[in-house]
Amino acid sequence: MTTLLPAFRTGPLARVNPVTKLACALLVAFTLLATVDWVSAVVAVVLTSAVLAFARLPWRRVLPRLAPLGVAAVLAGITTTLYGVPSGRVWWQWGVIEITDGSIDFAVATALRILAIGVPSVILFLTIDPTELADGLAQLVHLPARFVIGALAALRLVGLFMDDWRALTLARRARGVADRGRLRRYAGLVFALLVLAIRRGTKLTTAMEARGFGAPGPRSWARPATLGRPDAVALVLGVAIAALAVIVSVSTGSWHWVAS
Fold it and tell me: Where in the chain are the domains?
């Protein structure tokens, strides 16, 4: 994690405060979650793609990280097509599987909504430095400093899981442990990784308490979190994307409240 993500923290998005990026992602997400139509999702996908095209990100490294999101959208679309709420013309039916006009429309809307919410969220979080996000949440959002610092420390340890997994695999292979049985081998590795994570977390907690991170009262910050013109531009773009998605959907008669 610490060796891959800095490559994405370049370009215009690097000058935007992580709190603003988080606010923009949540704004678009909650707007799209309020409706189940496909028009608003298409508008959001097109607009966010146009904005992110100017972000100057290394797309050869971004696209592999978006691949699981595409797979999730396709699987959700197929499942909704087969088992969605039937309505309109019936195209094919077999047992509990029924493909209708309504299930197809809902499947398209679901798949597009996953992309519309997931793509900007993944890209924005790739450009976020965890330390800057913690500074912003504590100083601008005024979340409890103890909680923010603890979450930051835990997040820093996540990047070590792959290295730990690789080291445990090589060590067990060198000792000839669990050479047979893939399921048994993975179960042993998961348990060993869990024990290692608990031990490391306990040591980190003790070290942080010894250095005064859990002390009561206000604390100082090495890097002040501020908001500037890039944050205002990003927030305006986020509001514009959400508003245009709603306006186009309502004007075309496609808006449908998720609760109705």
Answer: 5-133+226-251, 143-210
